[in-house]
UniProtKB/TrEMBL annotation:
This is UDP-glucose 6-dehydrogenase. The keyword Oxidoreductase applies. InterPro entries: 6-PGluconate_DH-like_C_sf (IPR008927), NAD(P)-bd_dom_sf (IPR036291), UDP-Glc/GDP-Man (IPR017476), UDP-Glc/GDP-Man_DH_C (IPR014027), UDP-Glc/GDP-Man_DH_C_sf (IPR036220), UDP-Glc/GDP-Man_DH_dimer (IPR014026), UDP-Glc/GDP-Man_DH_N (IPR001732), UDPglc_DH_bac (IPR028357). Keywords: NAD, Oxidoreductase. GO terms for molecular function: UDP-glucose 6-dehydrogenase activity. Pathway: Nucleotide-sugar biosynthesis; UDP-alpha-D-glucuronate biosynthesis; UDP-alpha-D-glucuronate from UDP-alpha-D-glucose: step 1/1. It comes from the Bacteria.
């Protein structure tokens, strides 16, 4: 099939590359000339394992190209995928200005029947508006479809090529037939529904996953007080197939480009129809506060943080990405700076992006994890990068001024801690006893 993807952000680029991998001819359009040149030269602007190789192989095979010429791309395609961003407005609502712009361009350049497939996450009813924007500028026939994207950063290629399900929302049988054929190589689990339900499935899925995370984080806070271990609790819950084991990892809360934005947007969508989405509001509240448990634990161990040297391991919102959008590390570091702490930060790949969000003369950006920990009064692990799991903890403790470890992601187990001198705080697990027989306080 001949496909144009408009927008080469996470969703657009990965979808475009993966559709070309399935043998389709794909043109990816972006209005950012620099980005298009970079992609044409075979470079990927995001860190996504596996993406570059597949992209280059398909460009070489002549199935994938990048351009700023939207008119030419549209005229050569039967399916147009809209994958531009929908950032948050100050009230939490999704900003649809990029979507409208693209819809109007599509309307201006339509020259025969096409399927317009929206992959951007858009509020319920937006595809109807896209339809109106396009129809106001063309008499050529077209069908609208909402096909939401569920990929995760860091595993985006895998998620796209092996999805749990594909949701196709459309009112056209012709579009159903074509889009089923397009997605059939990926999965048999194809759900066909109306456009508004498809739009809602995306928000409801993200909101539900965010709810699972806030739920287990609250359970973890209670576990700390009653002496239970949240990782065992989550394991015990997860075997129940009605609950499922995934997204029950307690930590410092969710971040990233989707959950924070989409939960706020769904609260707003509900508010617009006079519905107070109380549960989701609490999920957001719990998430906002969870990250500050790291500070509370630091204060428990050190008292005042004024002048204390705090090492931070991990700045990205999760491992295997350099994305720091809404990363809990941002607010944690800002709060530490407000309290007069001196920061030594390290992340394998996200430092450059992070510095654009927070920078201060009180932060030293280190290029090695051990260097960041050297002489520190405490170390906070904020992202569960694999390299942090593999360090020699005895060595680490010896490098530090005070062996205090706040493990915000529960990456170390009791068997690793018990032979060290660390005063160790984790999330929702009872205080562990270290080599000196010292048990971490429960706060
Ligand atoms: C998410 C959705 O998973 C994906 O389907 C959607 O398309 C986009 O949003 P992503 O933001 O890439 O994907 O990351 P994800 O792996 O879902 O993690 C989101 C956040 O939740 C991270 O900050 C992560 O650390 C946190 N998380 C996740 C937890 O704290 N506990 C968990 O058990 C799972």
């Amino acid at each position: 099939m001949n496909i144009t993807v408009i927008g080469t952000g996470y969703v657009g680029l990965v979808s475009g590359v993966c559709f070309s991998e399935l043998g389709n001819n794909v043109i990816c359009v972006d209005n950012n000339v620099e980005k298009v040149n970079m992609l044409t030269d075979g470079h990927v602007p995001i860190y996504e394992p596996g993406l570059k190789d597949i992209m280059n192989a398909n460009m070489k095979a002549g199935r994938l190209s990048f351009t700023t010429n939207i008119q030419d791309a549209i005229s050569r395609s039967d399916i147009i995928i809209i994958a531009v961003g929908t950032p948050s407005l100050p009230n939490g609502e999704a900003n649809l200005s990029f979507i409208e712009l693209v819809a109007r361009e599509i309307g201006s350049y339509m020259d025969n029947y096409k399927i317009i497939m929206t992959k951007s996450t858009v509020p319920v009813g937006t595809n109807d508006r896209i339809q109106e924007w396009i129809s106001s500028l063309t008499n050529h026939p077209f069908d609208m479809a909402s096909v939401p994207e569920f990929l995760r950063e860091g595993t985006a290629v895998q998620d796209t090529l092996y999805p749990d399900r594909i949701v196709i929302g459309t009112h056209s049988e012709r579009a159903v037939a074509t889009l089923k054929e397009l997605h059939q190589p990926l999965t048999d689990q194809i759900i066909v529904t109306d456009i508004r339900s498809a739009e809602m499935i995306k928000y409801a899925s993200n909101a539900f996953l965010a709810t699972k995370i806030s739920f287990i984080n609250e359970i973890s806070n209670i576990c700390e007080k009653v002496g239970a271990d949240v990782s065992r609790v989550a394991e015990g819950m997860g075997y129940d197939r009605r609950i499922g084991a995934s997204f029950l990892k307690a930590g410092i809360g969710y971040g990233g480009s989707c959950f924070p934005k989409d939960t706020q947007a769904l609260i707003q969508i509900a508010g617009n129809v006079d519905y107070d989405f109380k549960l989701l509001k609490s999920v957001v509240e719990v998430n906002k506060d969870q990250r500050f448990n790291v500070i509370r634990k630091l204060e428990d161990a050190l008292g005042s943080l004024e002048g204390k040297e705090i090492a931070i391991w991990g700045l990205a919102f999760k491992p295997d990405t350099d994305d720091v959008r809404d990363a809990p590390a941002i607010e944690i570091i800002q709060r530490l700076l407000e309290q007069g702490a001196v920061i030594r930060a390290y992340d394998p790949i996200a430092t450059e992006n992070f510095r654009k969000e927070v920078d201060s003369p009180s932060i030293t950006w280190e290029e090695r994890a051990m260097k960041a920990a050297e002489g520190a009064d405490a170390l906070c692990v904020l992202t569960e990068w694999k390299e942090f799991m593999e360090v020699n903890l005895t060595d680490l403790a010896a490098h530090m001024n005070q062996p205090i470890l706040i493990d915000g992601r529960n990456i170390y187990g009791e068997d690793q801690i018990k032979d060290t001198s660390f005063q160790y705080y984790s999330v929702g697990r009872p205080g562990l006893t270290n080599i000196d027989g010292r048990k971490t306080a429960v706060i």
